[in-house]
Each structure stands twice: as structure tokens, then as C-alpha cells.
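Deviations from the work plan: none for this task. Representative record:
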Amino acid sequence: MTISFQLNGKPQMVDIADGNTPLLWVVRDMLDHKGTKFGCGKAACGACTLLIDGEAVRSCSYAVKFAEGKSVTTIEGLGTHENPHPVQQAWIEEIVPQCGYCQPGFMMATAAFLEKNPTPTDEDIDNNIINVCRCGTYYRMRKAIHRAAQIKAESANPTNS
Amino acid sequence: MDNTNKKKKKLSRRKFLVRGGLGTLGVLAVGTYVFRNPLRRQILSFANSMDMSYMGSGIEPMIWFEVTSDNKIVLHSPKVEMGQGTFTGIAQMAADELDVEMDQIQVIHASTDTGNIDTFSTGGSTSIAGLWQPLRELAATLREMIKTEGAKKLGVTVGEVTSGKAQLTGGGKTISYADAVKDVTAWKVPDTPPLRDIKDYKFVGKPVARIDLEAKVFGDPIFGLDAEMTNMLYGSVIRPNKIGAKYVSADTSKAENMPGVVKIIVEEDFVGVVANSYIEAENAKNAVEVQWDVDRNWSSEDIKELLKVGNGNPSLIQKEGSDIDTSEEVIKMEFGSPIGAHAQIEPNGVLASVETNKATIKISTQVVNLTRKEVAKRLGFKDEQVNIIPTYLGGGFGRRLHTPHAAQAAVMSKAVGKPVKYCFTRKEEFQHDMFRPPTHHILKANLDASGMIKAIRHDFSSGDVAIDSAILPGFLNTILGADVGAIRGGFCQYGTIPNIRTVSWHVELPFATSWWRSLGLLANTFAWESFMDELALKSSKDPVSFRLAHIPNDEAGKRLKAVIQAAAEKAKYSDEVVNGRAMGFAASTDAGTPCAQVAEVSLENGKIKVHKVTCAMDPGIAVNPDQVRAQCEGSIIMGISASLYEKMEVTDGELTPTIYGPYQMALMKHAPKEIDVVLLQGIDKPGPVGEPPLGPIGAAIANAVYRLTGERLTHMPLQA
């Protein structure tokens, strides 16, 4: 079957025998976007989190056929070195990553979360960012999420900054 | 260490690292870092608190460094980067001796073809400490070599050349390092120059940003599972669910007809599937019907029984004065820790390409050399025919000190004549981990009339850590008499106690256990420091001064006392419960690095909540204080996870659970709101960092809970 969707703002068409193939493997192996990670295959760790129409989705458990007509954003489409997303900027400022493997999933989850809750409390963060990091970078991540919210607010209202 | 110029070798014409339009700079030796008797040293080093010096084959600057035509220094690291920050630390060390800026140095993993091979492993918190002296000497020597060549081009003497920002200035002219060294065919070898004073360094000791930061923030394809090759296929290897299951036979007929299947490979020791995609390989694997022979359906109760102190083989590893006096009052407590999983987020995986006479392997591994040897052996190749290209690791934690999957992928690649990539499923990760062994501890003590400890005895039982590991010589345990990994943290660090006995009991478990970040330290310190807390209360002393009173005034003792005092002062340690919060104190010395922690804890709806952890550690010189702090923060959170939540069970012969969630780990909500790290510098060199801060956290939390509830939690996970 043929499935069409937007990948990081560009039209993408994939021809795949099994439409139930998880989007994760289509993005990684067919479309060569390796920033979305395989961690568990059961939507339990969040390493594969990407955005579908702005919603954070664990792509290891999302059949590619459901992406038809939708807009998929991966870490490669979140921001660029020249123009980082506020979440990426904050992650750099706080020097969050250690091994780094889970970080794209966390950043994608955070990007979606801040759209809904632009001024989160610690408790909001604790209750909504529920991916797994084995290196234990949560402490810096929590700071970085607050910082990202601040950067986002400043860029939305430059005169208030 | 023999690192002088005495062993200067003749220049050779070996070619390494041709890249970026600039040929290799040639090769020379400035000394050797290969010990005359590495095995002996290795053993002694292990015995001496795991303080390992660097052991590798790369003794020549040009194996380590290249100068590219765009005037960058590329450092080919034989140590792998798994999050611990080694790449950043060694870049700082090299940049300061090479006179280049941080953005002028890149660090990449040395492939084994370069000849720069760490013959042991990346682990044991030894990378920065071990490379501190040799790497700076290599960098300083290269700087002098570049200056010598540059002086000729500038038409001045070497003494008139100054270096900085990868440029040389002399005689009123400035040229780049790249210009200085291009066209060089024969080098003048300087004596190893003296190293600079540490206080003159621009980058060492400064919190510079990780050099892999942007790659990791923008999702660059740097990990093992991201590797690709042209015409690559996907493999999968069948693994049993049950402990001790032996392969009998496989019916592959159904799987052979599954979509996308290229080949089913039946070897004596494994069955593999190769297909056109990951999903097709997994689906076909699940369609193979394998007969397994299972002798016994193990249970958690069986393991607990095996593990009891007294049931294994004892080794007396510490003996001062007499044994405990049982005619007097004996204070006795028992502790335990569960089977722990590594649970690193990047599953084990490998990409192998085997051709007629050579194999290329891309892999996340902590044992580059061992991986190479295992692949070579399996293929009947010489080591030199196998090139291991290490990648960034999506977490290591000791799990990647075992890489038999590399040889399996090589076999599959050879069978299909194409590159094959394969990785573990998460269930396979959990059931076929090389687990942290469960432990059982019995601690006994007598106090004297003044409340000081008169005699103390620690008996602890553990499955394998080092024993049977392929990275150590097999006879190591018979030399030391005990598992050198399991004993870590097991010794009594309170050296003024006149009578001490420590006995390590080794147990053979029916499943594989091995290296897990900090080895025995996590469980041993939990037991020791919980017991010390109890003894302090029994002697009516506060836990800080009680500990201090039992530490000798030798160098190690002074450093341990200093971190204990620093942690207590910074946290304003108090035995009082204030606003429902209590503090718990604990300290340990691991691999020569002392660390003390104070955990501030409350109970919320009956659940332990860790609000703040104060951590004082003396790692010696902190090459990158920010990354030392990051290691403390990460260790504390990993330690909270392991101490409070994590536990593998054995149910009807299977290790469970097999997925995150049911295998409960610390999440964002469990991370303390505040982690206050105080770094001391009690020695003038960098010491181990990545594991020592895992020691105290479990006992610090349990000791705080005791102050809240009067109940002493003696078995991890504490929040069971």
C-alpha cells in the first residue's frame, strides 16, 4: 500500500507491503531519519516519541497506515543548528544529555507539552514528561523544560523579555 | 609507569589515518604505556581499589591524533563515549597541551584499524584518570613536533616559535598547524616536553560544554543502532524465555515462507533469521518453533536460598585483630539487594559486514578489543582482518562489556553475503541481561563501654561480577580468592576499629550476572552504611561524628573525613524531623574516591519521596567540573531508581518483568528537586568519578526513612 504524509514539512510517500508496520521503522529505516530511537517496542519508554499533527506519539506502537494525510515531525525537523527549537536551545544551555539516546524522545515530548502548557510547574512536568532516561538526566531536564518555556515566551513576546 | 623517552622507537613508515586531503604525519614513539608485566599490574591494580592505569596499544602520537587540512585536530579515542563525558575531558586535556581551542578539536572513536586499541575496556571509572598523564604527554609531544616543522617554514628556530589557536607565529609571520605539517615526510622527534602547570590550563578544570552536545540535541545518527551499510539486511536471533534452556532443535519451515525472509541460519549455539526489514525479521523469528530443554523451573525463592550467607564459597578478604566476640552482646542485622537489570535505553545491537578476507563491525561496545577477538575467532580470521568501528553508546553501565552478538551478526552476514544489522528486543534485554547479582549481607558488631565499635564483621554473598567475565583472566579469582567486582564496597572503611572481619561468599547462580555500574558498591554500601547508622544510634551518637570517630588519619581517611564533613555542613545535617522531612547520612570510598551524601526525605501517601540530595565527593582534579557534577546527579538518580524501585523476579523459570513500567524505574517525578554537589580536591590528579557517587544514596535514603518511621528498611528495593 501507498501512504502519504508530511515529514518535517515535506511531502513523503512510502510504498509498504504491511500498513501495520510501526511508523518508527518506516521513519528510521525507509526514510533514514535516525533521530527517532528504538527503545522498547511497546510504548513504554518514549525513546521513539515524535509529533503527529503536533501531538506526542510513541511511534514504535503507531501503525504507519494511520499517518496517512498527517503531519509527522521528528527531531530532525524540530530545529536546526542555526535555528534551534526553544527546547533544543534550553537543552544546550543546561547541558542535559549524557549518553543522549533517550534525549530526542524527551525533547519531542517536551515540545508538544509546552504547546499545551506554556508555563508548567515542577509538578506539571513530573506528571506529563514520563519517558525513561537511564543516565538520570531528569534533574537537568526539569530545569531545561522551565528554561525552554521561558525562551518560548520571550520569542513570542520579544518586547517583554 | 614507564613513560619516558627510553623506549623511543625508530620512525616507521606505517600509514594511519589518511583523511581530509592531508596524508598521515608519520609515526613515532614517545614512550610506552604498555606495562612490562601488564597482567601482574592488572591484578595488583584491581586489588588496589580498582585504580586502573591506561592499558592500550597506542603509544604513538600519530595513532592518536591527526591534523586535517582545515586545521582541526582529530583525536581518535580508544575509550568509548557512553555518556560519562570522556570525549569532552580528553579533548580538554589534549587542547591545553596542543594549544588549540575547543572548537578546533574533534574526538571520534578509534577504529581498530587505526592501531589505537584499548586492550582492556571502557569501564571502572578509569578513562580520564588513566589517560591523564599519557594523553597530555602525547599531545605535548605532538605540539613540539608541529613547532619543529613550523619553525622551518617560518625560517626561525624552534625557540622563536609560539603556538596558540592551532597557529604558529615566528619571525613576524603566522601559519596554521595544517600548513606547518603539510608535506612533512620525516619528523624530528623531540624529547617529551614537560607538561604545563595545571593552573595555566585554559580548559582543564573548567566547565566547558560537552563536545557531543549538539550531535545529541539535534538527533544526529551517532549510535550503534543508527549505523547502516549499502545492501544491509536485518537479522534477529532466537533466545529462550527460561533460565538455563538449552537449544535442542528448530522447525524453521513456517518461518522460511514468511514475507521478506532471506535466510534462516541454524548454528550449533544459535538460530538466526535474516530478512529485508526489522519487522519481517522479528515476525519470522516468532514463527520459528524451537525446542528447548529446561532442567529446572527456577523461582525467586530458589535464588534466595542459594544466596544465603553460608551457602556459597567463602573468602576472608579483610582481617584485623580478632573475630567478633560472641560472648558479649552482638548487634546483628541482615540486608539484601535484588537482581538488577541494566535497562540501558539503546538495546544491544550490531552491524556486521563480512567479506572473503575481512569483517567490518559497527557496534556500541565497551570492550572494543574483546569484541574484535571474538568476531575473529568465530570467523577463523586473524584479529587484523576484523575492523571494529565503535559508535556512541546509548548507555553502557557495564552491559556492553559483553558482546557475543557481534560474532552472531558476523555469522549471519557471512551466510547471506551482505551486511546484517540486528538488535535485541526489549524482552530479550530484560531476560538475557548480564544482571547485577542479588546479594545477602549479615553484619555484626560489638560496642565498647564508650560506644565505640570494638569489633565488626561483614559477611556478604553475591553471584558473579568479575568471575567468568571474558575481560579478565580466568584465574584472577584464585589469586585474590574472591570476586574482585562483588567485593567492591564490601570492605570496612572504618580503619580504627581494632577487630575487623570481611568475608565474601561466592554463589553460582543459574543465570548470568556481571558488571553493573559500581559493581558490588551499591549493595555493599547500602548494608554497611545502614548498619553504621544503627550502631551510631545504639551508641547514642550522631551519625556524622560517629563515622568520623572511626576513620584513621591516613591520606584516604583524611579525604573521607573531609567529604563527610563537607556533606554534613552543606546539608546542615540534623537528626531532627522538620516539617515531616528527615535527613539520612551515608558515605563510601570507591576506587579511591570518597563520597558522602545526605538525603532529605518525606513520606507522601506512604511512599518515599526524596526532595534533596547533598553530595560531597573528592575526585581529585575535576577535569570538567560540570560533567563531574552530571555524573553525581546521574548516579544519584540511578541509585534512587535501583534502591527504591528496581527488581527482577524469577517466576516459573523466567526472569521477569520484561518491559519498562513493570520493571519500575525512577522517572522525572522521582528525581529530587535539588541536588547539591560539593567537589573537593584532595589529590593532584583526576580520580574515578562515574561510579563512586552511586555508593551512599541507598543507605542515605533508608537512614532518613528510619528517622521518619522508626522502621529500618533492610532490603532493596526499599519502596517494594
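Chain A has a mean pLDDT of 97.
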